Amino acid sequence: MRDASCIFCRILAGEAPAHVVHEDELVMVFLDINQASPGHLLIVPRVHVPYWWELDEAHAAHMGVIARPLMQALREALQPDGINILQNNGRAAGQEVFHVHMHLIPRWQNDGRLG
Ligand code: 5GP
Ligand code: ZN
């Protein structure tokens, strides 16, 4: 359930700092430390599981459910032109933190980022 060497587990336990924007019994949502764009959020389940396919249905479903109001909050706060949902599984797919998570990345027209 928890990996002492995992930075997201340490944030979830209150042992490492993060700018938290939402938390409930299943997830914590905080700003990415290396913002791909302003407002870049990470939705992180309160269970140490490396990949989406290993995640239990309750956490996976809840991450999808709360993505919607979080996107609405980003739209109200920052007025982006679009928002990417990104979820990497495996080093080959760009995953760097092996505690499953979902990115919400606000986007602006011609913001110069790929994709
Ligand atoms: P991945 O590539 O695994 O999908 O994304 C991992 C994300 O976690 C990266 O965007 C990275 O900036 C972010 N990250 C890594 N360490 C920390 C940290 O200590 N705090 C926060 N808030 N984000 C982190
Ligand atoms: Zn972890």
UniProtKB/TrEMBL annotation:
Q: Name one GO biological process term.
A: nucleotide metabolic process
Catalytic residues, chain numbering: H101 (tele-amp-histidine intermediate)
Instruction: Give the location of motif Histidine triad motif in residue numbers.
Output: 99-103
Q: Which GO terms describe its molecular function?
A: catalytic activity
Segments forming domain HIT: 7-114
**Protein name, as recorded:** Histidine triad (HIT) family protein
Q: Which organism is it from?
A: Ardenticatena maritima
Taxonomic placement: Bacteria, Bacillati, Chloroflexota, Ardenticatenia, Ardenticatenales
